[in-house]
Each structure stands twice: as C-alpha cells, then as structure tokens.
C-alpha cells in the first residue's frame, strides 16, 4: 500500500472524486515514497475557472486577468514563421534580451528571461531565499492579500513567507512591511499594481521603503500590469533599479501583450545579482516561438498601446458605473477591479456564474473581476446593480 500526503489527496479529489476516495481509504505505509513535507503546508494555486454556458447568453471569462484582445497581427505572423521547433531554443533568449535592452534602455546583460514573470520570480527566490545550511529559513516579506502564487513559490524555495496585511483600501502597508524585515529577511516583494486589489505604489513611498531596509535585502518590484497604469505618481521599477543596486524588476508579456499562453517574462537586475540568477535560471524556459512573438510585439508598440488604452477606457467605464450605483472599490490601475465583499465573495461569484460570467472569488475577502469585452463589462455592471450587498471601504 502507498501513503499519500494530504496535498496529494486534495489534488486527486479535485481531479477525480473516485481517486480521492481510493486515496482516503488507502492504509498508510511509513516506507513509501513521500513528497517534501512543505507540500502539506502550501496553499493550492486556483486558476480562474471558465464560465458556465447559459442559454441565450454569451459566456465570458473575467477570472484570470487575461487580455480579451488577441495579439497584434505582427505577432501572429511571427508565430506562423517559426518552423524550427525540432531545435532547442536559445537558453539565454539573446535576441529578446537585445530587443528589451533597446526598448527599455537597459543593458541586455541585466535581463534574465523566464516562463512568465512568475517564472522569473521563482528564479530569484531559488537564488536568494531558502533554507540555510544551519537549517534556518530565510524570510520573504510581501503584502497580503497579493498574488496568490507568492506563498507557493516562497514555500517551495524553502523560505518562510511573512505576509503583511494590506490596508483597507487595498494598498501595501509599507511601514508595517519595513517593520517586518529582520536579520533573516533576504527578499521583499512589492506588487504594483497590487493583484488582486488594484492600487499602485508611489515613487516617494517606495524610495522611503528602500531606504529603510538593509542594502543586502533584495527588493523585487513586480510590475506585471505596468502598461495599464495611468497614475503619474506611480513608481517606475526601471528607475528604481537604475538608482538602487538591491532592486529587481519583474515584467511580463502575458497581460498587455496578450501572450499569456506563451509564458514570456523577465527580471532586470544589476550585474552582481544577474550573475547569480543565470546559475539558477531554467534552461530553455522561453521557446523560440515565444521569443519571436515577444520581439514582434515590442516592435508593434503603437498597436499594443492602442489596445491597452481601449482596455483602460473600459476600466474607467466600469469604475464610473460602480461609483454610480454606490459601490466603493480600491483605485484600480491594472486590468481588473476588486470588490471587497467579505463573506459574500463566493455568493457574488456564484450569482455572476448564473449570468454566464466567471469571476475570481477569494473566500471571505473579495472578488477580483477582470476587464473584458465591452459586453462582458456591461453585464457585470448590471449584475452589480441588481446585487443587494455593496462593498464598502473604511474611512
């Protein structure tokens, strides 16, 4: 007989109820192959679910912060041209790093690509956070609630997650985060705009935060949604990286560029950090297809910007519509809005589901709703208009 961890049992239950029953009824055996104990302590990543089909309604998925618009035509052309998939890709993504160097005015050697910005973050954590030879864990500080993959990748790296609650308006509590940094802290992650709550971090407060933490702590600025930001005071991670040697920047082609399925992201760090990242970086994480698609998207900056602006205008329409019916939400600067519905979060998601909309509920906290097609956004507003509970923010 085989012993299974509770994580394995839960995963099997989600995939196949019959398998879950079999696992639950299987006697435990001490000498069976076992996963690392940390697996039982990690939360499960919950991807946004697709919408349920409702007769007479077009279903829309607003649960994964995906760009509802396809990539620009040049990207599709670049993908079609890639016929060398029987060859391994360039492990260093040299062509893409060169294009990013020109686009962002940074040295190509400071760029390390990864499988999305999450892959780039995972490489950073595997390099700078974990369990030391004396058994003591490094600590990684981040705001919470924030990107739900953070505790997973911190835990799998072997480090200890230190979660600092966000303020009522969804912003990072940078004072509390600075107070949480100690001699065991090796990495701090700042998510701006914060996923799922929406607000950005401002330049002055980030600079004050960086000045308040030791210079041997790596400050990672996660800017997955930076192209959607329209606040002039928003921090610019590239500027912080240029100014402070202990800053790393994360960016991705998944959101604004619409390449989520191709998994292209990257980090930007100073040479003394980048040199270590290259030792850990996953070889061949970015395929040639993905690399050439990303390059084509960078070359089509005007077309990409135009599409992003159309989504920003839709976001503004949604925000105005919510305000009109008395719904209070944190200021959104990504391609999503946050409804602080607390214990009503799951109920609202189920209600949206009866109208062929899938949204992302975080039980007892809130609901994140992606900005989608105009028809989807209009239906979302109508659902909110008819829903009896309004989210409020404390004053």
Automatic annotation (TrEMBL):
**Residue runs in coiled coils:** none
Q: What is its EC number?
A: 2.6.1.57
Q: Which GO terms describe its molecular function?
A: transaminase activity
Region (Disordered), start-end ranges: 1-35
Do the record's keywords include Membrane? no
**What is the required cofactor set for this protein?**
pyridoxal 5'-phosphate
Q: Which residues carry this modification: N6-(pyridoxal phosphate)lysine?
A: 255
A Pfam match: Aminotran_1_2
- Domain Aminotransferase class I/classII large, by residue range, is 60-375
Q: Which UniProt keywords apply?
A: Aminotransferase, Pyridoxal phosphate, Transferase
Q: Where is the composition biased (Polar residues)?
A: 16-32
Known role? Aminotransferase that catalyzes the conversion of aromatic amino acids and 2-oxoglutarate into corresponding aromatic oxo acids and L-glutamate.
The subunit structure is: Homodimer.
Record's family?
Belongs to the class-II pyridoxal-phosphate-dependent aminotransferase family.
HAMAP family in the record, alphabetically? HisC_aminotrans_2, Phe_aminotrans_2
Official protein name in the record: Aromatic amino acid aminotransferase
Origin species, per record, is: Zhihengliuella salsuginis
Q: Which gene encodes it?
A: pat
């Amino acid at each position: 007989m085989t012993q299974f961890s509770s994580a394995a049992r839960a995963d099997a239950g989600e995939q196949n109820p019959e398998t879950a029953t079999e696992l639950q009824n299987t006697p435990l055996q001490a000498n069976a192959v076992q996963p690392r104990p940390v697996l039982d302590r990690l939360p499960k990543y919950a991807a946004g679910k697709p919408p349920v089909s409702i007769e007479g309604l077009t279903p829309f998925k607003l649960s994964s912060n995906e760009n509802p618009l396809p990539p620009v035509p040049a990207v599709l052309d670049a993908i079609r041209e890639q016929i060398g998939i029987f060859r391994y890709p360039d492990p260093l993504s040299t062509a893409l790093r060169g294009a990013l160097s020109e686009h962002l005015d940074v040295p190509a050697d400071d760029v390390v690509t990864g499988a999305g910005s999450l892959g780039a973050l995972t490489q950073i954590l595997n390099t700078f956070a974990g369990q030391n030879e004396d058994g003591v864990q490094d600590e990684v500080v981040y705001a919470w609630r924030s990107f739900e993959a953070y505790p997973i990748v911190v835990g799998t790296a072997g480090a200890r997650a230190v979660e600092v609650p966000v303020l009522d308006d969804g912003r990072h509590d940078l004072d509390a985060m600075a107070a949480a940094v100690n001699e065991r802290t090796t990495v701090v992650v700042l998510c701006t705009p914060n996923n799922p709550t929406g607000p950005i971090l401002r330049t002055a407060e980030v600079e004050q935060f960086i000045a308040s933490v030791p210079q041997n702590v790596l400050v990672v600025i996660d800017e997955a949604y930076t192209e959607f930001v329209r606040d002039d005071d928003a921090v610019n991670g590239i500027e912080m990286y240029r100014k402070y040697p202990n800053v790393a920047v994360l960016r991705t082609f998944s959101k604004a560029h619409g390449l989520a399925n191709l998994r292209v992201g990257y980090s930007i760090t100073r040479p003394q950090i980048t040199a270590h990242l290259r030792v850990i970086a996953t070889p061949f994480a970015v395929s040639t297809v993905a690399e050439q698609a990303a390059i084509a998207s960078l070359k089509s900056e005007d077309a990409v910007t135009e599409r992003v602006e159309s989504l920003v205008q839709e976001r503004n329409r949604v925000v105005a519509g919510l305000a009109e019916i008395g719904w209070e939400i944190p200021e959104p600067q990504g391609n999503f809005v946050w409804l602080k519905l607390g214990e009503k979060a799951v109920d609202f998601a189920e209600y949206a589901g009866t109208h062929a909309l899938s949204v992302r509920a975080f039980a007892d906290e809130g609901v994140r709703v992606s900005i989608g097609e105009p028809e989807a956004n209009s239906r979302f507003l109508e659902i909110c208009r008819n829903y009896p509970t309004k989210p409020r923010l404390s004053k």
